[in-house]
Amino acid sequence: MDEGDRLAQRFETHRAHLRAVAYRILGSPAEAEDAVQEAWLRLSRSDTSGVQNLAGWLTTVVARVCLDVLRSRRSRREEAIGLELPEPLGNGEGGIDPEDEAVLADSVGRALLVVLGTLAPAERIAFVLHDTFAVPFDEIAPILARSPAAAKKLASRARRRVHGRSEVPDADLVRHRGVVDAFLAAVRGGDMDALLAVLDPDVVRRTDPVVLPSGAPIQVRGAHHVLREAPVFSRHARFAEPALVNGALGALVAPRGQLILALTFAIKDDKIVEFEVIAERARLDRLDVAVLDRRLAG
């Protein structure tokens, strides 16, 4: 085995880790693969004879590539995300497998991907590397061209954004989480009896008109009206994940970590008395979203 083959073999032992780092930073399987490939190209062109910690060296390279990608995203005008679900990235012929992508999103958490997308590039790098992969701040600092103290502040600021602050007591959040989980499961499975069990008989549903079929009412009242509409939202429900929305228990619909719908709930006596489906981009962008504390996770 020549030196090139040995180097390739060593790189492959780190590929899964590098892909995990890149995906959590970028939230895109395709871009994560590109970042890992770029790390291999840089490794193959570099003299690494003096590198004692190849995993650390490669993680730094991937993080710098990801930082460039994040900065490029912010520098160009973001295109509005339509209400139709994005087409799958892969086609089974060398692309990203949609099932693999779904597993990746589930492993990280769609709500976390949404919140990470609101962070500045340097905040996202500092938070992901330190909080997820335990990279010390003195190693993160050179990637960001900041001091270790500044990198620590960036991670701390990101952490506050990611976890947010609930305006509801923990005990109520736990109960509300059970109600929202039951609601989403019933919609996903088309279980009308289970859905009826979590809805107040006089439940009110409000929805931004852009997500409704032509002529459908913006507001309806009554559980049986909501039941008739359930199939309209069922295809979105598989991408839904409970999250904090404006400080209360809600849900985000975010295929690939791209927020396309948000649901807010009013819950009383473990029944949903009102919920709203937010779909207008301007309203989505104004939401304060955060991931649920692990203690409250189902």
Low-confidence stretches: 77-96
Count of DSSP E strands?
7
What is the rounded Rg? Answer: 22 Å
What is the CATH domain class of the largest domain? Mainly Alpha
The strands making up the biggest β-sheet line up spatially as: 2-1-6-5-4-3-7
Count the DSSP helices.
Answer: 12
What overall geometry do the principal axes of the alpha carbons give? elongated
The share of residues in helices is 55-70%
CATH topology description of the largest domain: Butyryl-CoA Dehydrogenase, subunit A, domain 3
Strand percentage, roughly? 5-15%
Class computed from helices, strands and strand pairing: alpha+beta
Could you tell me how far the N terminus lies from the C terminus, measured between alpha carbons in angstroms? 50 Å
The H-level CATH homologous superfamily of the largest domain, spelled out, is: PhyR, sigma-like (SL) domain
Task: Supply the number of structural domains.
Answer: 2
Give the biggest beta sheet: 7 strands, mixed
Tell me the series of helices and strands, N- to C-terminal.
HHHHHHHHHHEEHEEEEHE
Summed over residues and divided by their number, the pLDDT gives a mean of 86
**CATH architecture level-2 label of the largest domain:** Up-down Bundle
